[in-house]
Amino acid sequence: MSEFWFFLEVLLSGLFAGTMYSLVALGFVLIFKASGVFNFAQGTMVLFAALCFVGFLEMGWPVAVAAIVTVGIMVAWAYSVERLVLRHLVNQAPIILFMATIGIAFFLEGFAEFIWGSDVHPLNVGIPNDAWFVGPEGEMMIQQFDLAAAIIAGLLVTVLALFFHYTRIGRALRAVADDHQAALSVGIPLNQIWVIVWSVAGFVALVAGIIWGSRLGVQFALSIIALKALPVLILGGFTSVPGAIVGGLIIGAGEKLAEIYGAPAIAELVSYMSGINNISLGGVEEWFAYVLAMFFLLFRPQGLFGERIIERV
Amino acid sequence: MRIRNLTLALAGAAAGLMGLAGTASAAEGIYIPNLVYKTGPYAPSGTPVAHGFADYLAMINLRDGGVNGVPIIYEECETGYKTDRGVECYDRVKGENGGAVVINPWSTGITYALIEKATVDKIPLFSIGYGRTSAADGRVFPYVFNFPSTYWNQATAIVRYIADQEGGFDKLKGKNLGFVYLDHPYGKEPIPTLDILAEKYGFTYDKYPVPPASMTEQKSIWLQIRRSKPAYVVMWGWGAMNSTAVSEAANVKYPMDKFIGNWWAAAEPDVIPAGDGAIGYKGATFNGVGTDFKIYKDINDLYGAGKGTWTKDQIGGVLYSRGVATAAYIVEAIKTAQLKFGNRVITGEEMQYGLENLKLDAAAIEKLGLTGLMPPVEITCANHEGQNPAIKIQQWNGKVWEIKTDWIPADTALVRPLIEQDAAQYAKENNITPRSCS
Amino acid sequence: MFYREAGIFKTSYAADQALFRIPLDRLFVIGVVVAAIVVVPLISNEYWLGSIMIPVLILSIAALGLNILTGYCGQVSLGTGAFMAAGAYMAYKIATNFTWMPIPLVIVLGGLCAASIGLAFGLPSLRIKGFYLAVTTLAAQFFLLWLFQKVPWFVNNSASGVPTAPPRSVFGELVTGAEATPEARYLFVLAFTVVLAVIAGNLVRGRIGRTWMAIRDMDIAAELIGIRPLHTKLSAFAISSFYCGVSGALWSFCYINTVESSAFDIFRSFMILFMVIVGGLGSVLGSFLGAFFIFLLPIALNNVVTTFGLPIATETISHIEFMAFGGLIVFFLIVEPHGLARLWQIAKEKLRLWPFPY
Known about the structure:
heterotrimer; A: mainly alpha; two-stranded antiparallel ribbon; globular; C: mainly alpha
């Protein structure tokens, strides 16, 4: 297989993986934008939504019904979070709200497992799972599944961006994001907005859960993919929907390239300098995204598309 | 109002703590605690093992009224596969109900943390097919048992299987293999052995570590495998890593019958999420699978009596059977100990004798109704992994795991010196004088 | 009535700036320390000492460290686990390479290594703030753990990568390793805890602590009045990492006996952050209360069920434990966002008038 095609394949699969990260990151951005809350429970919401969905499917319900009921559950969840938690924490420091979402994540984790158990559930909603071979001798493989997932993610982002820009609710959301008190004073119901935004985040979580779940099976490990979304967030900026997408693409492609080309090169360099043979530096992926994001932030502390931070005394 | 709420919460917490204090109870029976993990990312693998273990012990209590008439007290402690919770669990259970007779940590990390503690407390650790490989040297590790086989021996047996497939060890020369492993003490265990085997037989292998924190993200690994096209891929995985690897292997169209998991990477939860793509995936095992063994008559009776710990249609999988086998070894070891010390509640120290003198030949296993489910073992003072470590290769056919081979013996001649060397180094570092076994 | 602040007159600056200005407070703290040294080992069984008190004290040290960084200096960190790991691995390396070295020195050196690493990872804090900083500390978390796992040098080329902490003694009594008695290990850990707590208490009320707090409250304003952000933030990072490093070394040497990276994963970092927030940001006492509360809560919940012999499956207990844990965190944040330390303060205020409130 020629190196060039392989490089292309790595790049492409990295970009596809990136869209999946973006999908999770999107949920974070939505909530952060509207309420200034860094919602650590997003990953668990992905797990919970996917578990509900697959649970209903296994009861023999049709896909559409299961999806609608799951969205209903996520809305109910959003409502109870607003009612029981957020409402009581208005005006607290961001770190307190962040901690509260970690608490919510723990609760939801226990709750999801309590209801649905910890088994692995296979999930198949009919996303094609074959591969195309491209190139003069079919060197390059494109997973249809990845492409489909990327398209779904792209569609979702477009719809959300339009929603934010052109609907009344979208404008209200942006107003709340800019200034809670000013928004309240012009008559925007803060609590209602929060319920809406958490519901939308729940919906995004469901889509992410279905896609990840069809790939990996719906299982507890889905909740740890949230960690992968964090560097995407800081790279793209907490407040920007396009940022989540671009950040995801950069991280996805960057870490694959680093793992496949960077790590062996460094390993060779190290073994040349130290004289020790057989050094293996696999697993660079685990931290690459964070370190990349960190260096990036040194030059642009608000992220790629984040709002400029202006500080006054 | 605030204060009152808080007081209530604190009172609740205090009530919980009171519970901590008064836990000494004096029930009569052989106390076998089990450090399980039925929650968290490793739960799909941890749950069936725990149920198989519990069911067999419950069956012994129901059918025979215990071991030689002495009832078994069984208790679980949830670790979540976390080392510190495991240590806490161990400390909590070791003294209860007259003292634990044996501890199953079910995690290599927890086993490492408990080796010294258990030795001081004189409670045997039984890490069946996991944990510290060099603990097979009973002279340095009197209280640790890891029969019927260890990771290092398993690695040699898998390589032997590959050689058989290729038509002899000489055919391995120049071949390139892939080794996908969890970047964790457990996954790294076989690397030194593989290095030696690679040198001995002239093959090369590439290492692909999977970090535990992102074990569901293996794309780059499988792209590399797609490029380098190794003749075989061997996997040392656990939890969600396995199912991800199987799906990704299927995605990159790696020939599944050249993909071999170790005995912790080849069970039902590992292949089901991958759907039809997983068909053909192979794995090592040391226990049988299915519900066709004679013992299932008694286990079915247990479920008939409503005393089973799981639901009946879930029993019989690979890991469930491994739990059954583990419990069966323990019960036989208790019997061995009782032969010497009398039919009574035994202590951890007496259990150590029982495990160390455990001898189960094919006839004895047949009598238990477990033929095919567990291999015969013979444990001695010096050798805690048994005399003939061997594996079978099983293959997933889309519905069940099918055993494909007879016993494939490990290369003990090669591994034993390594075990002794590692154990000796451990003894030196920790100022242990190996006991004499002659 | 029982707690009196009035009527205590100070005649010197020294008295006015003492660590505990009110005799009652001083007596109380001394009493607690004495009780911890004498009474606790006498009344506790092995389980209490070995599996509850030791880890709680060790985690309190880490919580103190994080409280210095987050509570006093306002820099949120999610990399506590990595700095603990740095302390543990370096202490192991030092202990095995310089076998003559007394173990307290080994642990302090481990802490110093962690401090220098913390210094390096604190540099971005000069430019990056808030949540962005929190997430960049995750870079430390993932990178350092990866490094310790990948480079066999850190574990003396041990085949499994999980070396056993070597047994070492102080005054002829084993304090590390499995053969050490829980009492010896407990007292050893307690000595570290008390000394470090006193140091922390003094740091935060002195000049350096005041500069930290100035930076926390508004860094630009602090800069304008002449506080150098570089020194201040980096000193907070270094000292905080030192505490975490010591705590990590003790965790490996005195509690789980092995040097294992998964003991210091991201969930450990979150756990310590929980302790600091539930205990009370910017409070030395809060670090201890938080550590006790967060560590004991799941164990207590677990024990309630097993003690009363409720017929609930293990996994269900664990699920309930998760739910209760999450629920209580949220509950606490809602009822008392300033943490347990603030509660203690309220209790003291009540005690001043009790039993005759007006």
